[in-house]
Design a protein that fits this description.
- The chain is of the alpha+beta class and 598 residues long.
- The chain is 26% helix and 33% strand.
- It has five domains: 176 residues, Rossmann fold (3-Layer(aba) Sandwich); 85 residues, Translation factors (Elongation Factor Tu (Ef-tu), domain 3, Beta Barrel), CATH 2.40.30; 71 residues, Alpha-Beta Plaits (2-Layer Sandwich), CATH 3.30.70; 108 residues, Alpha-Beta Plaits (2-Layer Sandwich), CATH 3.30.70; 112 residues, Alpha-Beta Plaits.
- The chain is elongated and about 110 Å long.
- The model has no long low-confidence stretch (mean pLDDT 81).
Length: 598
Amino acid sequence: MLHIRNFSIIAHIDHGKSTLADRLIQASGLVSQRDFRDQILDTMELERERGITIKSQTVTLPYTDKKGEKYELNLIDTPGHVDFSYEVSRALASCEGVLLLVDASQGVEAQTVANLYMAMENDLAIIPIINKIDLISADIERTREQIENELGLDPDMAILCSAKEGTGVDAIFEAIVKHIPPPKGSPDAQLKSLIFDAKYDSYRGTIIACRIFEGTVMPGDIIRLMSNGATYKVEEVGLFQIAQKSKASLSAGEVGYITAGIKKLGDTRIGDTLTLDADPSTEPLTGFKEAKPMVFSSIYPMASDEYQSLRDALEKYQLNDASLTYQKDSSAALGQGFRCGFLGLLHLEIFQQRLDREYEQAIVMTVPSVEYRFTLKNGETLTIDNPHYYPDPAQIQGTEEPYIKASLFFPEKYMGMVMKLCLSRRGSNPRTNYPTPERIELIMEMPLAEVIYDFYDTLKTITQGYGSFDYEPIDYRESDLVRLDILVNGEKVDALSLIVHRDKARDWGVKICSRLKDEIPRHQFKIPIQGAIGGNIISRSTISPYRKDVTAKLYGGDVTRKQKLLKKQKKGKKRMKMVGAVMIPPSAFAAVLKTKDR
């Protein structure tokens, strides 16, 4: 155990975490130059394309120091987005130390601070690293000042590194061995192991990634999951060395994998404690909680006959992503579909793209929403994420929506525009910190519903890419919520209904009506598109009909002949409007979702 080190790399998005992991793997000689590729720990095409880690990976690196001592360094990689903060917390709970990566050109950002606090809560050794020193825009001294002033760490301890060029990698290895303590625990104690990740293999079932805190596990043991009491027989244990390398056993201090014929990924839960069934541990490890969806959206197949293939695709998808939840849903406009729950908007976006690429499913998705609370006059409390189940307004006593504490980092010159953005999204109770003369930290309390839609994209746009954002849920607060219905030709389109704050209802109604006007094709009759709250119409657009010139065949005569034909045409149009059905193309629903300019 004295020669084992368990560590993680934490950083803000795009500060070079995956690139540094590549250099550490190359330097350890784990992969030959021939087999190596960039972002080797990012196994999904989508991860490499977008430059973010979606699914965390683990790798055991062999290292020999200058004295000839051999070490086993376990790098527990973490996802790089706020949506996956719970997975990050469980990965950090499996470590004794972290490498805190800071971009020399961008400095300390929102998630850098959030990840630092998470590491400090777990009482981890922290090694600051200044990355991207090869860039022309790198300002090393300013970054050192930020590390001291904003993070409260020793700037002289910071290691200068260029993950792209491989500079400083040897110094990082030495710092890991020197500053990160070896793990504690006894191989002879009752088994106590933390599940920090799991993935599904179609031949072997669920492969559990775990850190052993106490005891030893080997093939043939009967293990128990402490959250649900399920038991399984261990088939294989081993280490992650890019490919999986089996071992005779895993004991206290080690990080590795366990396969036990677990058929569904959902049967294992991130953060759960694993113990032996014959001699179980009395207390589970702390910090476990169920993954709770924050954002909800309904999905429907483009064609109604593709419903079965969409259902099959969702079942397969959930084998690789246990945090996705879904249940059957239906709409008069779009037919049969599913109501899905996601960890956040990035999770929703990744889901949509993977469903398209990996399972070839073209879907229509409704506007994302969050969970609202309704207190009725009879004392009953309802939690609703779907506008379809909005209660009778006459029975509502009070309404509440979830709030978050948002932390924004950006250069001082953008203060006015960022404040304007936050206030337009119903932000309140602003507090500002000035960590350095040029940068501002703005802390604000905001409704989650105002953030999940396009807040991050807008922030990046108005700060020219220099703004960063992190958030954490606070509580539910009283709010004036209404259901906005969209009527097309007098018929309510249930898939376009949404729950919004009363002050925002007209803005939403105008934008949606405007978008639908552009997307719905013209018919032979006039089509009104209306936004309504109950019986009150708050917005309207009208699609003009095709107009046939019925007077073209007239070559003269009295004007009453012309009026007679126009009157006859008007009656026909009116009758057609009463019986005609409006065809709403799937692209119209997609256009509503892409409304960026609220």
